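TL;DR need structure tokens for one chain.
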Amino acid sequence: MAEGIRDKVAIIGMGCTKFGELWGKSGSDLIVDAAKECFEDAKVEPKDIQALWYGTCMSGMTGLPLSTDLKQQYKAVTHVENACATGSEALRNAAYGVASGAYDMVMAVGMEKLKDTGYGGLPAMGGGFGPPTGTGPNATAPGMFALMATRYFAHYGINPDDGKKLLAHIAVKSHHNGSMNPKAHLRKETNMDQVLNAPIIAWPLGLFDCCGVSDGSACAILVPASQAKNFRPDPIYIKALQIAVGAIGIMDPEYDFTHVESTYQAGLKAYEEAGVKNPREEISMAEVHDCFSITELATYEDMQWSKRGGAKEDIESGFYDLDGGLPVQPDGGLKCFGHPIGATGLRMMYEMYKQLQGKADLPSRQIKDPKLGLTHNLGGFPAACVCSCFIAGL
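>> reply
TL;DR here they are.
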């Protein structure tokens, strides 16, 4: 494997807005709000930034908003987009800009303003996407991930009612965590009965199994690792930043629909780059792309925290709860933040950044003595996905 960027780049500042139905804020407002926190956290000024990467899917086609909103006229600003993994892609590109030696201080910004556009959720695909079976134009995100849930239950011999309870545990866990997070969109506890009796979106996925639609922005400032402690005593070092894109499942009649191969492959590469030998034991906490509760369950196994078919036992034991062996979604995840597409990946990283520094906003959310934090940012349907995997530590 190539050398990669392990311990070559550090994050010295991050910012994140509250996520939600932010009718009173424009996209520019969100960018400025996140950047203000980021600059203050890093104790640097806008003039210090040499290049910027802007991640957004539906809120612009160029990097111009960063040039104008952040007073970065005539600097190098690049717009990036990679489906739901766009926020992570902005940071990945920024990190390689530093690791290459081209820049000494850069910024990655993710923003999406979905509510004002009338965007009601991930829509049916058009344009002839997918195989010549005709399923692509009629596919919806809940429908495709519902297929994963029913197939997973059947493949591992799980009674559908018991499977629904597994998914409900994931939702209840995330809502508990998100209820303590002042930046989350949805901040209410829920319980098993509420989740199990909620309206069905695409069976077996009910309302509480699906993430919401939100507005939000998040950003990060990066420098060479060798310079990081000139800015703060507790920078966070990037241990791995890997991406995997695959679509073979679309054309493969033997695709099992119980896992996401892009997640598994991105995890393999990230663990190798970070030097992680036992992911279940070495990863302290994680933010994963829980667009649907079944996605989170599959990710437990794809990231090698649970054995294949073993997520049930770990969910029921509380292994992924906030006080468990490997807390997942300590900030509430997409389930409580929603999914402003360009911002989500950086929002996940913001949570790991704060947790690693011991600065979670409430003591009740702070993970005890974390060593490595992982984020998993997924875009696409189970059989055809882009997956970004990020590992960071002190």
